[in-house]
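FAQ: What does the model actually see?

It sees only this:
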Amino acid sequence: MAKRTPETSPAADKAKVRVFFAEVEGNNDSVQEALKTMVSAMSRPVRVISDNKSQLKGGALTHAADTEDASEPAGEFDEIAEVEAVEEESDASNVRRPRGTGKKTDRNAGIVLVPDLNFRPAGQQSLKEFVEAKSPKSDVETVLVAFYYMQQIMRLANLGPNHVMTAFKEVGKAIPVDLKQTIRNIRKSKMWLNFTDIEDVRTTTQGSNYVEHEMGKGD
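And it is asked to produce this:
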């Protein structure tokens, strides 16, 4: 008895072929150029993209491919590939990182202590005594007091972040994690400081009045 040949599953032979035809009209040069473009496009390797993108996104790409005119330059194919690559990179960059896992940076890098500052001038309160008397309740107030003391009592010019950091070290206060930004915030929100160059900060009338008449009076 002859052996029966196993029947091939219809699904295994299933295939789909799409052929595009194009009509090109023009002079000899333009027709030849269009034919070269189409031949070049058809000779490119087939790319198989397997991605779990949303149906909406995949449908948009399929629609763009179906409606593409074969008479368009080959650059159009490259443009679609570039869009896909940019979208993939964008998806990767939008991944949210857990809080606290980002790269740590020292915002005060580059700020150095100023040597030979005399925070205990003769006949005057020391900086430490002055800060204790004014009892600043925040980093903002401490920065203001430091600038006021160095400007009004020590009579220093060209005061900047380096001087403030040195003052914080002198009185044993914790230095703000972004000292320069703290100084900028005081100028913007409180108007206690004024400067164009952050290395040349001066207390304003409002800032001096606050130190002299509002601070150190207790709660």
